[in-house]
Protein: Sulfotransferase
Amino acid sequence: MADDPFLNKDNLITKSAKKSSLVFRMVVLMIVMVCGVYICSICLKQLNFQTKSRFLSIVIDKPCEPPNIEEWEVPYVHFPGPQTYSRAECRCNPVRFFAILSMQRSGSGWFETLLNSHINISSNGEIFSVKARKSNASTILDTLDKIYNLDWYSSAAKNECTAAVGLKWMLNQGLLKYHEEILEYFKRRGVSIIFLFRRNLLRRMISVLANQYDHAAKLLNGTHKSHVHSHHEAEILAGYKPFINTTLLIPNMREVEDMSTQALEYFKRTRHIVIYYEDVVKNRTKLEEIQDFLRVPRRNLESRQVKIHKGPLFKQVENWKDIEKTLKGTKYESFLYGNYRK
Ligand SMILES: *[C@@H]1O[C@H](CO)[C@@H](O)[C@H](O)[C@H]1NC(C)=O
Ligand SMILES: *[C@@H]1O[C@H](CO)[C@@H](O)[C@H](O)[C@H]1NC(C)=O
Ligand SMILES: *[C@@H]1O[C@H](CO)[C@@H](O)[C@H](O)[C@H]1NC(C)=O
Ligand SMILES: *[C@@H]1O[C@H](CO)[C@@H](O)[C@H](O)[C@H]1NC(C)=O
Ligand SMILES: *[C@@H]1O[C@H](CO)[C@@H](O)[C@H](O)[C@H]1NC(C)=O
Structure:
């Protein structure tokens, strides 16, 4: 009977000791497992969060270091975080904001194609030619926010390495009307202004009239073009010679002058540069000055656009003699013969 295992005391004791140590081990194992799962889940959550924030470009990442610049420049340097895409490796490339303020037929279309040939410049075109965007100050400022946040989609939009972003804005597109709100915005957001004007207002007027005429006549195979890319097309458009109403000639030019003076007055307290179309045509080194102003690396800028009206003015209008008579002896006389090489 002594061999009966159930009656063997020793055997009983060792068995229960073994059992309790097994239970203990199980408990420890459970704790380790629970801890492991918990730590893993936290790790996963953090990883998930990081990837998400990278994709949504929420700026929880390290803030961007401002570049090595002078104190006065700090308000003009930005690190936009677009909502619609990530700036990827250029997240911390500084971006400057600009606006080209100009008037119709002053070479701003050509000027903008030159700027957009720069790999780091995005000038988004005449955004406020669309009525709804300029209907009141708040639609204007909302639109600007979108452009300067690099969320505006246009053919000019570059990759994530844009270093200067802006638009072309005509004085009569809500700019003078809402000048107070716009000035406040330009100053608050550190927007630099490029005024682009044309010196020869008579040439400008001929261009306006010819463009208006073509709007209806559509000389190029039934399509209206404001800008052309071939000499052939330019010749066809320049074939039309407008008739200028001499009664309205001087008042019209004065009105144009007043608008540009007004704009300069309203926005003179912004960081700005004044450029004349004729100077850029004559001297391409002007473009270097503009690139320096925008703080982008200097590059050779190019445009495929071809000038429409070339050569002496008397060949470009219907009633040259009347125009000559009207302007002789006035301060606008120089416009008659002012010419530039091309
Ligand atoms: C501005 O115009 C938009 C659209 O035209 C309109 O929805 C909005 O209420 C206007 N805001 C103000 C302040 O007038
Ligand atoms: C300009 O763009 C190039 C190419 O995308 C990029 O490598 C470079 O860093 C950009 N330069 C500046 C000043 O942002
Ligand atoms: C008009 O179309 C014809 C035929 O497609 C073409 O040969 C001609 O160059 C076009 N003219 C202009 C001004 O585009
Ligand atoms: C020129 O404009 C004035 C004022 O609008 C007008 O009275 C006049 O008839 C115009 N002259 C011509 C030749 O069209
Ligand atoms: C061209 O412009 C630059 C800078 O704007 C100026 O320094 C230079 O003298 C000009 N050259 C000529 C030939 O006008």
Q: What stands out?
A: Residues 49-59 have pLDDT under 50 and may be disordered.
